[in-house]
Every structure is written in structure tokens, then in C-alpha cells.
Amino acid sequence: MADTKREIERKYEGPPAGGDTPLPDLTDVPGVSRVIDKGVAELDATYYDTADQRLATASLTLRRRTGGDDAGWHLKLPVSEGVRDEIRAPLSDSVPDDLTALVRSRVREAELVPVVHLLSARDVRHLVDASGTLLAEVSVDRVRAERLSGGAGSAEWTEIEVELADDGDPAFLDKVEKKLRKAGLRRSASASKLAKALEDTAPRKSTKPEKPEKPEKSGRSGKEAKGEKATKATKEATDAKSGPPESAPRTAGDHVLAYVRAQRDAIVELDPAVRRDVPDSVHRMRVATRRLRSTFRSYGKVLDRTVTGPVGDELKWLAAELGVDRDQEVLTEHLTAALDGLPSDLIMGPVQARLDTWSGARRSGSRQRLIAVLDGRRYLDLLTTLDTLVAGPPLLEAAAKEPEKVIAKAVRKDFKKVADLVGQALELSPGSERDLAMHDARKKAKRTRYAAETATPVLGEPAAELVKSMKSLQTLLGDHQDSVMVRETLRELAAEAQGADENAFTYGVLYGREEQRAAAVEAALPGEWEAIEDKGAV
After folding, report:
1. What CA–CA distance (Å, rounded) separates 172 from 85?
2. Integer angstrom CA distances of residue 214 from 209, 225, 431
3. Conformational region of residue 156, where left means phi above 0, alpha means psi within -120 to 50, and beta covers everything else
4. What residue spans of 58-204 are helical by DSSP H?
């Protein structure tokens, strides 16, 4: 079973391999009482990646290492600059299944192969305080790298690593860095040893100019000429297909694609966190799928719905699968809080035990189902489809236009739909029909919020204000929908309790409180909506 360690470290460039190590006296660092020499460890690591380096491109590293006190398989996932989560697994001949699963959203069906072999002589020192507590580990690594795939080069270098002790204060690294900089050291330009090895051993590109191809004879049919004319109308927008992702958005298509790309990236990046059951990861991944699907629907004048529609259907499926786990999590948290808030004299029977049993059974089943979904062909095909769509977006004529009018029009259209649904809900009497109308309004509020998020870089403050308004409305209507779902669950639990000859009184009390909560939301809705209408759309 793999375990996880949060790694906070900084790397510094040392002298050329074989040169003297300019490591200063670190006892001068504030807080350091002693520097303990831990000796030299010989480390032998083989790094794995796909042939086209998908892991390295995403700043992920996967290695099998022997030597030192942590021999085994290590997968490092970036968290922020200088911070990574290191997932460890015991030594084996092949990549452990646990780690393979965590890189599946990147690797898909590609084979993981050895790409770099590193031999490191690691000279380790521990920085400890007056009580002997470890503050950080400083190592001087003399490295030799050999390319195993995509070339046959080799390289040597020396680097210094400073890794913060577990639960240490990151500010301590600043103190160490100040001392190292005074000694003439500087931060490494490479984020990892693998990144430097790949760069230093990459095959050199030929500078010999290629011979120009002979022009083909023009023999276009009328249909081909017509196609070229249609393509010309969206030429400016299609720059987003071939230009770098980080290029500044200019057209309506640029802005929409930037948002689409960000949500695609979020889904892929959150995959390992969902598999590891990191708190809130399922919710965040579900939100990314909803944002992406909503964008396809809101900006149908920019991206061809005949292409994005089927993709949106698959995103809806994925969101539903993620929702099984997320909805269960929300229900459990709410019911637990509601039960904790009851006076003890209103709790009759083994209510907490029944809730724990119900939650545990549902949670176990939903987790197993979700992992099966992430390992399934349908999900992996969806990721590949999203990659294809981002690389070659189905842009329509409006995509080439100035973004202000195109994007503002789409946002206003969504806002009108929210207004219509809220109006319908307010006209209905309390009951199941109103519950459904409010739920529909909540979904449209989300869609309008996401459309406004896309519009914010273009329209500025008005779009940002609309995002806030829709988020407020979404929260209010979400509280109402949560109450509907909690009441359904309480009826289910009460029926189970009665069937087991348990007292169902407490479930009725909780049910009544949920009815009051829903009524409070319904009473607040007219005022909330009036304030939003006064502000209007963009």
C-alpha cells in the first residue's frame, strides 16, 4: 500500500561535477544549534515516463530508487512551487498498480518506460536546534545522468537540496537560503533532477535548413474553394488552435477556449487527488465538469454544439458519477451536524449508530464505484476527446469577432433564463412543484455564474458582480435543495428504524426542522431576487 509524504524543498546549483562544494557554515543560520554530518549515501534511481514524456510535461516524476533510507517507488505530484506530495510504494520489479492508477489521467493507454538513469552520491547534513529537533536536511548531490529513451546522452552536475523537516516552518528555508546566497549559490533553474537530466541529455536539433517543398498544382474543386472561403471567416479565431495556450486571448473564441482549457486541465489534474480521497477533490472535479458543460451550452454561438453536445453528454455522465460520492458526503455531514444540534432528550433510540451504518455502507459502495469509473474506458475516452477538442476546437463564425458583444450577449441570455425560472418558482405554492422549480433555477444560476466567469476577463467588474450575485442565489437555492434531499433521507432512515423496532421519534424532529429551513429559504427568495434584478446582468 502506498503512503504519502509532503515534501517542501529548495534546490540550488552547485559547481561543476568534481569541483569543490561551496557549502557555508550553516550553524550561523538563526535557530540552528548544530550541523550533524550523516555521511554519504549512494542512490540509484531509474525514472519512468511515456515515450513522449507526458509525466515530465506535467511536472510529475515517477522513479524506482535503491539506496538511502527510503528505497522504493516514488511518485511526486506538484502542489505548489517547491512543494510536492511524494507517494511511496515498496520496491518491486514493475511499476506498482497503486502508482499506475495515479498517473492514468496523464498516461492513458501509453506504456511507462525507463527514460533516465541517475546515480547520485548524496552527502547529507542535518540542521537541528538546541533541543536536537530536526529543522531541515541539507544534501550535496553529485549526479550522473544517462538517457535511456529518446536519446543516448549523459550529463553530470552537482546540486544542493534543502528539505524542510516534517511539520517545519517554511520560513526557515528563507533563513537557510539567505546564507546560501551569500556563499554565491543560486536557485536551480530546473524543478527536479529529472527535468535537468532530460534537458541536458536531449538530442541536439539539427541547424541544417530543410529544402523547401515543391508547390502542388492547383486543381481545386468548387466544393474545396467554398470550404476555404468558410474557413477564412474564422481564421483569426482558429489561431487559438495552433498558438500557445498562454498567448493573450483576443477574440471571443480565445476567451471561451481559455476557460475550456482551464476546466479540462482541472479534471486531469484532480484525478490523482480523487483517487487518493483528498478532501474536497471530488467536489472540485465535479465543478470542473459542470463548468465545462455549461460553457459548451452558454457559448453555442462560439463553439459548434453539434460537436460539443455529445461531449457535454459525457461530462454530464461523469458529473453524475462524481455526484454519487459528493452527495453522500454532503448528506452525511448535514445529518451529523443536525443530530449534534439536538438536545439529548430529543434523541431516542440508536440514531447515531444507524446514521453511521447507513453512511458507511453508502460511502464504501460509492468510492468503489467511482474508482471503477476512473479506471474505465468511457472516462479515458472522454479525456482524450477533450484533448482533441482543445487542440482543434469547432469554432463558428462568431468566434472570430470582438469578444465584448459576443460574450455579453451569451451571459444576458443565460440571466434571462434564470429570471424566468425564479419567477415561475415564486408563483407556485409550497410543495413538490415549487421544489422542482427552485432546483431548476439553481442549475441555471450555476450556468450563468460560469458564463460570467468566462466573461470576467473581457467585461470586468460587471461580470465579476454577476458571478457574486449568481453564487449568492445558487447558495440560497442550494440550501433549499439540500433540505429536500435530507428530508428524503430522513424518511428512508425512519422506515428502516421502524422496521427494526426502533423509536423513530428523532427522525420526525429532524424532518420538522428541515421543513422550517426550507420555508425560511422560500421566504427569503423574493428579497434576494429583487436585489439581484436591480443590479441586472452585464
Report:
1. 20
2. 15, 21, 74
3. beta
4. 97-102, 104-107, 171-182, 193-200
CA dihedral 477, 479, 485, 489 (to 10 degrees): -170
- Which residue's entry shows cell 476527446? 385
Burial-class residue 289 by CB neighbours within 10 Å (0-12, 13-18, 19+). buried
Measured between alpha carbons, how far is 523 from 526 in angstroms, rounded to an integer? 7
What's the count of helices (H) and strands (E) in the chain, helices before strands? 16, 9
Instruction: Centre a 10 Å sphere on the Cβ of residue 142 and count the other Cβ atoms it contains.
Output: 19
pTM, entire model: 0.84
Pairing of strands 83-89, 72-80: antiparallel
Tens of pLDDT along the chain (538 residues) come to 468 999 999 999 976 655 566 789 999 999 999 999 999 999 999 999 999 999 999 999 999 999 988 899 999 999 999 999 999 999 999 999 999 999 999 999 999 999 999 999 999 999 999 999 999 999 999 999 999 987 778 999 999 999 999 999 999 999 999 999 999 899 999 989 999 999 999 887 655 555 554 444 444 444 344 334 333 433 333 333 333 345 678 999 999 999 999 999 999 999 999 999 998 899 999 999 999 999 999 999 999 999 999 999 999 999 999 988 678 778 888 999 999 999 999 999 999 999 988 888 776 667 888 999 999 999 999 999 999 999 999 999 999 999 999 999 999 999 999 999 999 999 999 999 999 999 999 999 999 999 999 999 999 999 999 999 999 999 999 999 999 999 999 999 999 999 999 999 999 999 999 999 999 999 999 999 999 998 888 8
Q: How far apart are the first and last CA of the chain?
A: 52
The dihedral sign for the CA sequence 284, 289, 292, 298:
negative
Partner residues linked to 49 by β-bridges: 113
Query: If 0-12 CB within 10 Å is exposed, 13-18 middle and 19+ buried, where does residue 360 land?
Result: exposed
3-state secondary structure 439-504: HHHHHHHHHHHHHHHHHHHHHCHHHHHHHHHHHHHHHHHHHHHHHHHHHHHHHHHHHHHHHCCCCC
Instruction: Give the three-class secondary structure for 376.
Output: coil
Sequence-distant (6+) residues with CB within 8 A of 151 are: 201, 202, 203
How do 83-89 and 154-164 pair as beta strands?
A: unpaired
Question: Which residue in the block uniquely carries the three cell numbers 562544494?
Answer: 21
